[in-house]
Fold this protein.
Amino acid sequence: MNERLIGLTCSKCGNFYRPDEGPYLCPECCGVLETLYDYEKIEKFEGKDLWRYRQLLPSSGRTNLLVGVTPLYRSDALNEELGINDLWVKDETRNPTYSLKDRASAVVVVLARELGCKTVTCASTGNAATSLAGLSASEGLKCHIFAPKTISAPKLVQLQAFNARVLKIDASYDDCYDLCNRFAEKYNWYNRNTAYNPYTLDGKKTVAFEIAEQLEWEVPNKIFVPVGDGCIVSSVWKGFVELQKIGLTDGLPELIGVQADGCKPLKESFDKNKGCERAEPKTLAGSIAVGKPRNGFMALRDVRNSKGKFVSVTDKEMFEATKLLGSTTGIFGELAGVASVAAIKKEMENGKLDEGEKVVALITGSGLKDVEVALKLFEKIDLLEADEGKIYEHIEEISTNRRGR
Ligand SMILES: Cc1ncc(COP(=O)(O)O)c(C=O)c1O
Ligand SMILES: [Zn+2]
């Protein structure tokens, strides 16, 4: 364990635990735990990969796969289309298994190895699972995945390619999560479940460190984050709070949590200032179709502390954002992964975002992992006869129909 890791505090009751006491959730109140480091002792970051932040990670080990270090782009074309000047896109599709979740899985597999656990597990609608499976494969760990039957085919084959032991269960994600926790305890597997294993937040917060560093330590005004369980949004907050604590940045960003219109329990709770009620997910954006957000308490707290808010977007708006992002930047995100861009477009149209604000959109996962949904939404491509005349006519027709570019 990193000697700078002082312990874990409960996000609900504030109880403190030493790292060697090692609970997953707070034994008192089942609150999600958060790591606490000795921020006085942090020295200059050195190195070129994610492990350059190891002073603020639980373990100093590293993975074979290259995780993180993803590009932050400023696309003139996208900015122009949205009528904004300073929008940056953090392309998390570039992680080894194509989603931001690799950051959390990297930290988890390193810890599992350090703790002497040979088997890891998690429940997931897809991205956390494939990332844990890929990282486990590269570290020689066994991996059991509890997947709901709705898991997409590309994610399922990815799991198989990584030789994970897949338990595809006729149950919702929420039920798979509870089952996974029970079996992890029974077999003593190391459990990566989100909002259960406190160190996943540490892995994901590295995305905030990278954004700040790529912007030369200038803090953006707003960061748009797709939200399901609410862990990524809290990790981004934790990352920026820690950077401020160690004096690398001055100020904090407003966090805008983005949910699907068809599943927005956190937005409802935030707007109505009341407890989070379970929602029945009705959205194609599978990765954020979470009816019972496991990190709801912390996500609501952090978005509130950031002076931000939650917004929601329709599946159609996410699909439009997929096309907008793809056609202006060459990045293909899954619906949930581009919810951030959809929300920025909406906020601009509603006059709620200033064109001069420095804004970051997290693109959290790749469209190729949810290609069945994309295939449903994109129009079919005509099959052309191998006839020069007809092909010529077709080229002329599509050239006049396509907008601008
Ligand atoms: C692509 C993608 N975006 C966003 C999220 C939401 O993250 P969280 O559940 O931490 O809110 C997920 C989680 O599975 C995801 O896979
Ligand atoms: Zn507690």
Remarks:
- The CA atoms of residues 270 and 304 lie 8 Å apart.
- The mean pLDDT is 95.
